[in-house]
Design goal:
282 residues, alpha/beta, Rossmann fold, 13 strands, globular
């Protein structure tokens, strides 16, 4: 049975230890801030990017990785492991053209590279990436892995609070005709990423509305029979993220929780102060 190696992109919220343990190849995405281009995780760390966001007046922008980056990722693996198969798992096609690039390049490696749209992002993407890596180590086939990942996708929920809609609108992720602009531009918003799109759940001018939003999210989590994993991501909101991690740990003491700053390409569209809860369960 051929070895299976996993490729993803830098929007995935993976720790350095996880990447090393499972030998996951991460294709870096590109962000531009202060008129400088950076490759995520190569030229700039997440924390350093947040600091630049705090001082830069012009909003950052993002772009999908160059085609050559995917060729390099696939060829590097196949040069090391000529008989290997590659499962390339990427952020939702509904959010980025990254997956389209990966899928196009994968066609140049027939029978060797399989592309998979995770329909997720951040730690939600990582839930699938890590499960795939573990199953690959166990000797499972790509169809067997895809079947389990489809179940995780259906069970994953992503909720986040934003301090402002400014970045989402500037990045084209919310239409100016959506009814969430104008006087609501600086409103704090609670949203869900579902079915490859953004759904507004709550909006208000103070922290109270956001607290109520997360109370509702957590109440929904408590109704499930089991929470398999929890991710907490943030954009320069370490204190809030730590408080949320502690709260969730008290409620779900047996569930693994990973807290980390989100990827620059996500921070670019959500803005400073964003807090996100991601989980999957049944």
């Amino acid at each position: 049975m051929p070895m299976i190696k996993i490729v993803t992109d830098s929007s995935a919220a993976l720790t350095d230890e996880e990447i090393q343990k499972y030998d996951i190849s991460v294709v870096p995405l590109q962000v531009t801030i202060d008129d400088e281009n950076y490759l995520e995780g190569v030229d700039i760390t997440r924390e350093a990017f947040f600091k630049k966001m705090e001082t830069e007046k012009k909003l950052p922008t993002s772009s999908q990785p160059a085609v050559i980056n995917f060729y390099d990722a696939y060829e590097n693996i196949l040069n090391r492991y000529p008989s290997a198969q590659i499962l390339s798992i990427h952020m939702s096609l509904g959010l980025s053209g990254t997956g389209q690039t990966a899928a196009a390049v994968a066609k140049d490696f027939p029978g060797k590279v399989t592309f998979l749209d995770s329909h997720s992002i951040d730690r939600g993407l990582s839930f699938q990436v890590l499960t795939a890596a573990k199953m690959a180590e166990e000797g499972k086939t790509i169809p067997e892995i895809e079947q389990v990942l489809a179940k995780i996708k259906d069970q994953t929920r992503i909720y986040l609070s934003l301090e402002s809609l400014k970045n989402l609108i500037a990045g084209g992720r919310i239409s100016r005709a959506s009814g969430l602009v104008g006087s609501l531009l600086n409103i704090k918003v609670g949203i869900e990423f579902i079915d490859d799109s953004i759904k507004t759940i709550s909006k208000g001018r103070g922290e109270k509305s956001i607290n109520q939003f997360f109370d509702q999210v957590i109440a929904g989590m408590q109704k499930l029979h089991k929470i398999s994993e929890i991710g907490i991501s943030h954009v320069d909101a370490e204190i809030k993220a730590s408080e949320m991690a502690k709260r969730l740990h008290n409620l779900f003491p047996d569930t693994p929780i990973v807290k980390m700053g989100t990827a620059p390409i996500i921070a670019t569209h959500t803005g400073i102060g964003t807090l996100c809860i991601l989980y999957y369960g049944e």
